[in-house]
Amino acid sequence: MSTESISLTITYRGVTHPLSLLPDETVAMLQARLEELTSVPPSHQKLLLKGKKLADEKATVRDAGLKDGMKVQLLGPTAEEIGGLKKTEDEQHRRDRILRERASKPQAKVRSTASPSSAASSTYKIHKIEPLPHLPNPESARALLQRLAEDPAIRHVMQKHQFAVGVLTELAPHEHPELLGLNVNAGQAIKLRLRTDRYDGFRNYREVRRVLCHELTHNVHGDHDNNFKELNSKLNKEVAEYETSVSQGTHRLADAWGGIYEPSTGLEAEAHAHVLGGGVASGRVASGDTPEERRRRVLEATMRRLQKEEEELEQSCGTAGPSAMT
């Protein structure tokens, strides 16, 4: 066995870890050392060398192409984070088991004082939000996640399509630089990129919400096939219709939860710009248009923009696979 060690620099979540290994030691030994340093289990470690994954655990450090002075990036959740998702999954399985048992037994009819809309609002929603505590300004991230969870347009489409999300949390830019969103197990958890790449602020709210609509579609369809695109387009349209109907009406709408929804004028102005060919200097739409015609034009312009943005978003979505629901 060679006695001349190889010095490596491992980066994980913005922290560097210097390591020295013998050339004949295996990648599995490297992973064991990294587990001690970062608490990421070897089974969940993803090691990237010049953008390529080190996949063979039995390979030696030398055969894996690791050389003195190289930098390796480590990706993966910690054991504590895995435990949190496992706990959520176990709770979901417990609820499913109880529901199956109830469905198999005759039930006595009980008069309920709760309205159907109240029952739906308590079931089809985002049940929990979790910012990442190890990232800067977790309270600001929590406020953004809370705003998404309580967004009237999002709650509208979730109840309409009977979507439920166990946990809404965030993606760290340095862990998944290529992703904007990820849906875990058809809604068990949805992860969104909230922050800018340099951690000096947060991404535009409407862009993040658009990614959320994309990931909600993965509650039903895993792959980005025609079925996915049809449903995703429908969700985007329903969100746009919801907001356009409000903006073309009183600009204030009491929703089913007792709150008051006041839409931003930014979307309306942007849509008018598309309708008028790139300018809203006059601040007016074509004279003679009825309110319904103005609403239709705003909606059509909005949908054209959303369709173009959705094509770009598919390249930044980490969810793929067979249909999420069978």
TrEMBL record:
What SUPFAM superfamilies does the annotation carry?
Ubiquitin-like
InterPro entries linked to this entry: Ubiquitin-like_dom, Ubiquitin-like_domsf, WLM_dom
Q: Where is the composition biased (Low complexity)?
A: 112-123
- Annotated ranges, domain Ubiquitin-like: 8-75
Highest taxon of the lineage: Eukaryota
Q: Name one GO molecular function term.
A: proteasome binding
The residue ranges of the WLM domain are: 117-307
**Where does the record place the region Disordered?**
81-123, 306-326
**Which portions of the chain have biased composition (kind: Basic and acidic residues)?**
83-104
One Pfam match, given by its short name, reads: ubiquitin
Which PANTHER family has this protein been placed in?
A: DNA-DEPENDENT METALLOPROTEASE WSS1 HOMOLOG 2 (PTHR47795:SF1), UBIQUITIN AND WLM DOMAIN-CONTAINING METALLOPROTEASE SPCC1442.07C (PTHR47795)
Name of the protein described by the UniProt record: WLM-domain-containing protein
Which species is the source of this protein?
Gloeophyllum trabeum (strain ATCC 11539 / FP-39264 / Madison 617)
